[in-house]
Amino acid sequence: TWGLRSWLRVAELGKMERMKVVLGHLTGSSQRRVWEPSPCRGSLSGPHDVVVVHGRRTPIARSKRGGFKETTPDELLAVVMTAVLNDVKLSPGQLGDICVGNVLQPGAGAMMARVGQFISGIPETVPISSVNRQCSSGLQALINIAGGIRNGSYDIGLACGVESMSLRSATNPGDISSRIMDFSKARDCLTPMGITSENVAERFGISREKQDAFALASQQKATRAQKLGWFKNEIVPVNTTFTDD
Fold this sequence. Notes:
The protein is mainly α. Among the domains are: about 75-160, Peroxisomal Thiolase, Chain A, domain 1, CATH 3.40.47; about 180-230, no CATH class. The chain contains 7 helices and 3 strands. It has helices at about 1-25, 75-90, 110-120, 135-150, 185-190, 195-205, 210-225, and strands spanning about 95-100, 130, 155-160. Strands 2-1-3 form a 3-stranded parallel sheet, with helices on both faces. Helix 2 packs across helix 3 (about 110-120). The longest helix has 25 residues, at about 1-25. The N and C termini lie far apart (about 65 Å).
């Protein structure tokens, strides 16, 4: 059909453009390159743009004492995966790839991510990977999926981020080299994040009172937004059980 031919033509042009860019990187030039101003890439739009079409999340609970303290991350992940696919009316098998950001789970949550995939009904034919970039792991998952779409590996991908600080310890680094104390930069990796926050607060003059006031205002805004229903299309309800201590 015309539509299919047009789509194939666009795909062909996209590949040609990418080849030109790659060849430009590989081909040297004896002439001095003259740099010219150009519009910011973020301000442009075109048929090859990668776009985020939907996003959902679970509620956020307190670590060790909240409503999710006994809920495994694969269950939380599956709830959101299912909700997203249902909302956009996408057949799970149409996904080209899934990437899940995680920090504390073993292997950056590789097994946890795969289990969550199957619980949500996504077939094993859809590949999945996990990534750990500390606090920006979910963002890195989004970058990875966007990169795969941009380079033509697939057309649709699912980027996720999930964590349970209740079921894993952030203070246990596991088995590490006995030579860590011989290298100052490596030794610094053992410094808790709380110490870093103390150093930042002292450097920029952020008092405890200012931090408490900011935290209170943030909680008040979140409570008001929740009561007004501003998050109703974003938060996915989760049915779970936990022991009341």
